[in-house]
Hints:
The chain is an alpha/beta fold. The protein has a domain at 294-431: Alpha-Beta Complex (Aspartate Aminotransferase, domain 1), CATH 3.90.1150.10. It contains 14 helices and 12 strands. The structure holds pyridoxal-5'-phosphate and the ligand N[C@@H](CCSC[C@H](N)C(=O)O)C(=O)O. The ligand N[C@@H](CCSC[C@H](N)C(=O)O)C(=O)O binds next to loops. It is an enzyme of class 4 (lyase). Keywords: Amino-acid biosynthesis, Lyase, Methionine biosynthesis, Pyridoxal phosphate.
Amino acid sequence: xxxxxxxxxxxxxxxxxxxxxxxxxxxxxxxxxxxxxxxxxxxxxxxxxxxxxxxxxxxxxxxxxxxxxxxxxxxxxxxxxxxxxxxxxxxxxxxxxxxxxxxxxxxxxxxxxxxxxxxxxxxxxxxxxxxxxxxxxxxxxxxxxxxxxxxxxxxxxxxxxxxxxxxxxxxxxxxxxxxxxxxxxxxxxxxxxxxxxxxxxxxxxxxxxxxxxxxxxxxxxxxxxxxxxxxxxxxxxxxxxxxxxxxxxxxxxxxxxxxxxxxxxxxxxxxxxxxxxxxxxxxxxxxxxxxxxxxxxxxxxxxxxxxxxxxxxxxxxxxxxxxxxxxxxxxxxxxxxxxxxxxxxxxxxxxxxxxxxxxxxxxxxxxxxxxxxxxxxxxxxxxxxxxxxxxxxxxxxxxxxxxxxxxxxxxxxxxxxxxxxxxxxxxxxxxxxxxxxxxxxxxxxxx
Length: 447
Ligand SMILES: Cc1ncc(COP(=O)(O)O)c(C=O)c1O
Ligand SMILES: N[C@@H](CCSC[C@H](N)C(=O)O)C(=O)O
């Protein structure tokens, strides 16, 4: 149902689900939904195997060859002398063996010479923004995660940084605001939640041409290193929220930064040590454990997401997902990435209907975040992006009725069945408001 439409979707949702299901099982959707040739992964930094293998494979550094790297739950490390002689570590804020093991593993997967892990995705962005000085200019998107927007707004208000929000799907729009004062271009691709795609190679090259010292930083949270490696596409820094796909179970908060320039890596490390945001040993261990299953999780999450996107689109909804040919930047996306991820959004044309859908779905938890094994449903304008004020949301054309789905690894028929019932019920309710108890009486808690 595209924005503004008022007619409800067809009644026989379950039948439609089944017919879409049959078609998809045969992967017979006129080639619409399979990428022609996904961007290749370019193995570097000693990687010997395919990425899915490298995710699992880690060299043991443990004296007992433990299969699972130990959690060095120690704040301090004894030294051999008072004059600085001693081991590699002195204090966990400065470095910890469990964290180092994770960082080396991530550097390999992210095609980086150095990766660093911190206490959250926002912590990673904060470390990056410490590279800025008052008077510097930042160019970024007009669709951004709400927390990113909030931190940039804070820096613009309190830190003397000038922030330009432009449509980063248009490299010319970026070029127009570049100046000798541009210190950073900050991209999300795909964006959260409008799933807009930036041409990372093009934006990187025009940025570096305009100002060789400007840094291109890319937030890769929406895809993970399994599906896209921005450092290979011209970016100087890639960062992501490890809270999402990398960990995959919503049981920790983490942020990851990766670079290929050693001097830049040192600057970032300096801030992490100076400000004390390095990831704890236990969370480092948990994240390492999560990363090992990224390949299988992502495979299932993406195939589920594809089915759901096709289903919604086949019922007339405006669906934003780079796995659909209808995505306006489908070819660009697949020239940079090896998958579409498992986050999609769609509009209903009516905020109340959207709210009803979100609240009626039982299997889909109403929750912020994404990349987790269980499926989530949310209304960004009320939740993850509520910190962007309503006026700004309207100026940036963020639809109030937009629903974001973050698809997990459940049985896809269950997900489709639950979603289609929630959708049918909500449109039915809008049309015949006097029927109140057909479906909504069983709350999520009843599950
Ligand atoms: C695209 C994106 N970047 C960064 C973040 C920040 O990550 P974290 O919640 O781990 O701080 C989030 C979500 O929170 C996000 O969606
Ligand atoms: N209350 C939090 C909301 C976190 S949103 C998390 C995630 N990035 C998402 O997009 O769902 C906040 O204000 O930061």
